[in-house]
Amino acid sequence: MEFQKLLYTFTLVKIATFTLGIPVFAQIAQTPSNSSQSSCRATKVDTAIFKEPSTSSNAVRILPAKTNIALAYIPASGDRFVRIKSPISGFIQTAVLKFCQANNNMSKPTIGSVCRQIVQPVTLRGQPSTKGAFITTLNSNTIVFVNLVTGNIVKSYKSENYIWVEIDLARSFPGELSGNGWVANTDLVNTPGLSNLAYCS
User: Fold this and answer.
1) Which residues on neighbouring strands pair with residue 144, listed in sequence order?
2) I want to staple 128 with a disulfide (CB 3.0 to 4.6 A). Which of 109, 157, 181, 200 is the partner?
3) Cα(41)–Cα(66) distance, integer angstroms
4) One-character DSSP codes across 8-53
5) Which pLDDT tens digits describe the chain residue by residue (201 residues)?
6) What b/e string do you get for 4-16 counting C-beta neighbours within 10 Å, with b at 16 or more?
7) Helical segments of the chain, H only
8) Whole-model pTM above 0.70?
9) Is the dihedral of CA 68, 74, 76, 77 positive or negative?
10) CB-side exposure of 44: number of CA atoms within 13 Å?
11) Residue 114, class by beta-carbon neighbours within 10 Å (0-12 exposed, 13-18 middle, 19+ buried)?
């Protein structure tokens, strides 16, 4: 209960601070280079995810600024809230969203970078195997953090015609998961040239 009170207080302060200069029906910032049908958005400021489409609803999580999220649908003009499906399910105010920036540096990632973005829905498992314990399904645009081994190499494992990558669950989902998990990054039989993980922008 104490955590919920603190979270609710923080939410109200953030909303009050941000919305002072925003019209009631402020919409998602758009640029000509962005497709209006893209489901990827990013938060402009630290903002709350609500259980229902109302600021009086319970806040289920606070997302930091510049967090990429995936919309459950494209909001209509005038919508003040929109449902999101990742990194958590809930409702967010459209006024705090902007289109995701195109990643032009994927071929030249920072050495030692551990941030990755899910390209298409994948299953997170407890072991590097299709029979490994199911943890959850990660939707497109979810941000995760991989583990590295000596030489800044991503920790991976080949099993059942897949290349599996180890995910740091505590860092990827603070307060929700702990330990490590695995996702199938590459299908060596059907799509050997494709990856389910992309470098973060």
Assistant:
1) 116
2) 157
3) 9
4) HHHHHHHHHHHHTTS-TT---B--TTS-TT--EEEESSSEEEESSS
5) 554 544 555 454 454 444 444 433 333 333 333 333 467 888 888 889 999 999 898 989 888 888 888 888 888 888 899 999 888 889 999 999 888 765 444 444 455 688 888 888 899 999 999 999 999 999 888 889 999 988 788 999 999 999 999 999 999 998 889 999 999 998 888 887 778 888 886
6) eeebeeebeebbe
7) 2-19, 169-172
8) no
9) positive
10) 18
11) middle
Residue 111 class from Cβ within 10 Å (0-12 exposed, 13-18 middle, 19+ buried)? Answer: exposed
Q: Which residue has the tokens 């030489």?
A: 151
Q: Please compute, for residue 164, the number of CA atoms within 13 A of its CA located in the half-sphere on the CB side.
A: 21
- State both tokens at 139: 């939707």
Closest CA relative to residue 13, chosen from 80, 82, 59, 69:
59
Give the chain's end-to-end CA distance (angstroms, integer). Answer: 36
Cα-flanking dihedrals φ and ψ of residue 95, to 5°?
A: -65, -20
